[in-house]
Specification:
With 319 residues, the protein is α+β, with helices and mostly antiparallel strands. The protein has four domains: 59 residues, Winged helix-like DNA-binding domain superfamily/Winged helix DNA-binding domain (Arc Repressor Mutant, subunit A); 53 residues, no CATH class; 84 residues, SH3 type barrels; 82 residues, Alpha-Beta Plaits. The chain contains twelve helices and 14 strands. The protein has a five-stranded antiparallel sheet. It has a four-stranded antiparallel sheet with strand order 12-13-11-14. Helix 4 packs across helix 7. The termini are far apart. The model has no long low-confidence stretch (mean pLDDT 82). It comes from Paenibacillus cellulosilyticus. This is Putative DNA-binding transcriptional regulator YafY. Pfam families: HTH_11 (PF08279), WYL (PF13280). GO terms for molecular function: DNA binding; DNA-binding transcription factor activity. Keywords: DNA-binding, Transcription, Transcription regulation.
């Protein structure tokens, strides 16, 4: 919806400071032309969006501009007060802070909006925990809180870590941030001038130090994580197919058949994507299942495999 997209644009500009139409289009999965139209709408609404052309240009908002938090609507209340498993917040040691903040916000709501809160909490529960059995849950929580403190205070830590080759190594880490992915915690930081992501559960020992570090001003945790995750997924799903997405729900359906979207772009109304699969065989089966939703353009070899599979299927019915 355009209203949601306009709000997202404002929030992105407030966070990033300056963004180009191309960057916003990629984040919001629309065309650059749509972004320019949205900027005209925002200006017409009185939002002081500023545009600068040329190298290093883009869209900005004045540093003093702030959006209002009052006038919340029922869907916004529902989104804020979704019932969530507090385990990740407990692991970080900030669950009491979260409850305090929500109570303060709840106290400022009208009676009608409080009823909205009760309504959504009794209908949706988001469990962010992992299916995996946590055999050393308490130990991991302790390590996680030490790392969280190091992130907050920008203090270096010494780690004993077991890597993906099952080799135990020691390293010093300047911790930039924490990421929770599918119930698994990762710490992102710099070690020997290389930024890396480490699984907290693989940390065997942690020793905080009094050495402080300067976090690079240009570092953005979300951007780094997206790049790291894409690189990881490309290793896990090395067979890449280029395809046109013919239907709106194609993206959601692809994951059901073992595919991972690496990149989605739109030009002249045509949506194209790079889709990763574990193997060519998986790609062939998924493409057949997604017939009518995607149209494969490359590699050429998969087209031949698909035609062969269709011919075999037709032959089986003719007998």
């Amino acid at each position: 919806m355009r209203a949601d997209r306009l709000i997202s644009i404002i929030m992105r500009l407030q966070q990033a400071g300056r963004m180009t139409a191309k960057e916003l289009a990629e984040l919001l999965e629309v065309s650059e032309r749509t972004i320019y139209r949205d900027m005209d709408v925002l200006s017409g609404m009185g939002v002081p969006v500023q545009s600068e052309g040329g190298l290093g240009g883009g869209f900005t908002l004045p540093a003093t501009y702030r959006t209002k938090v009052d006038g919340l609507h029922t869907p916004e209340i529902h989104a804020l007060f979704l019932q969530m498993n507090e385990q990740p917040f407990k692991q970080l040691g900030i669950d009491h802070v979260l409850r305090s903040a929500l109570l303060k916000l709840l106290g400022s709501l009208s009676n009608q909006h409080r009823e909205d809160v009760d309504w959504i909490r009794n209908r949706v529960f988001i469990d962010m925990g992992s299916w995996r059995k946590q055999t050393k849950h308490g130990q991991e929580d302790g390590k996680l809180q030490l790392i969280r403190q190091a992130v907050w205070e920008q203090r270096r830590v010494h780690l004993t870590y077991t890597n993906r080759l099952n080799t135990t190594v020691t390293l010093s880490l300047d911790s930039y941030g924490l990421v929770l992915k599918a119930g698994i915690w990762f710490v992102v930081g710099s070690s020997e001038d290389i930024i890396r992501a480490l699984r907290v559960s693989n940390i065997q020992a942690i020793e905080p130090t009094n050495i402080t570090f300067e976090r690079p001003e240009s570092f953005r945790l979300e951007s780094y994580w997206e790049q790291w995750l894409t690189a990881y997924q490309r290793r896990q799903f090395p067979y890449v197919v280029e395809a046109e997405l013919l239907e709106e729900d194609a993206s959601a359906r692809i994951s059901r058949y073992g595919g991972v979207l690496f990149r989605v772009s739109e030009e002249a109304g045509v949506r194209r994507a790079e889709i990763g699969f574990e193997s060519e065989e998986t790609a062939v089966r998924a493409t057949l299942a997604l017939a009518g939703l995607i149209q494969v353009r490359a590699p050429l070899a998969i087209g031949a495999r698909i035609r062969e599979a269709i011919e075999q299927l037709q032959a089986s019915y003719n007998h």
